[in-house]
Design brief:
Blueprint: E1 18-24, H1 30-43, E2 49-56, E3 63-69, H2 72-83, E4 93-100, E5 103-110
Antiparallel strand pairs: 1-3, 1-4, 2-3, 4-5
Helix pairs in contact: 1-2
């Protein structure tokens, strides 16, 4: 295996996508996380993005869901009804990252601050 030569990578040509990251606290086991994963996969149309699953601490103390696509706002709007159903997500922090060319803009807020 050859070492990766980072200087030869043209980072300007790499496709950049918006992202939605949901950072949450303590939860009750992986079954609930897998249930949410399945629901997010099913609710996000492939034309606008994809749910890239989760990462969680081994002690169930915290974790994150990752979603990527064309427009972070559109993605998040699809996710809201599902996220609002779970009590442990009400204090979750939402990170929206918008990429437009070489400009990026980030928003951070609590899920509980959103009404729909």
């Amino acid at each position: 295996m050859k070492p990766l030569d980072l200087e030869k990578i043209d980072f300007d040509t790499i496709k950049k996508e918006d992202s939605v990251i949901i950072e949450f606290g303590e939860f009750k086991g992986l079954d609930i996380i897998h249930e949410i994963d399945t629901r997010l996969i099913n609710v996000i149309p492939k034309e606008i993005g994809r749910h890239d699953m989760h990462e969680v601490a081994m002690d169930d103390s915290h974790g994150r869901f990752f979603v990527y696509g064309k427009n972070a706002e559109e993605l998040f709007k699809k996710m809201i009804p599902i996220l609002k159903e779970y009590d442990f997500l009400q204090n979750a922090t939402v990170y929206l990252n918008f990429v437009n060319g070489n400009k990026e803009r980030d928003l951070e807020f609590k899920l509980s601050s959103i009404s729909f």
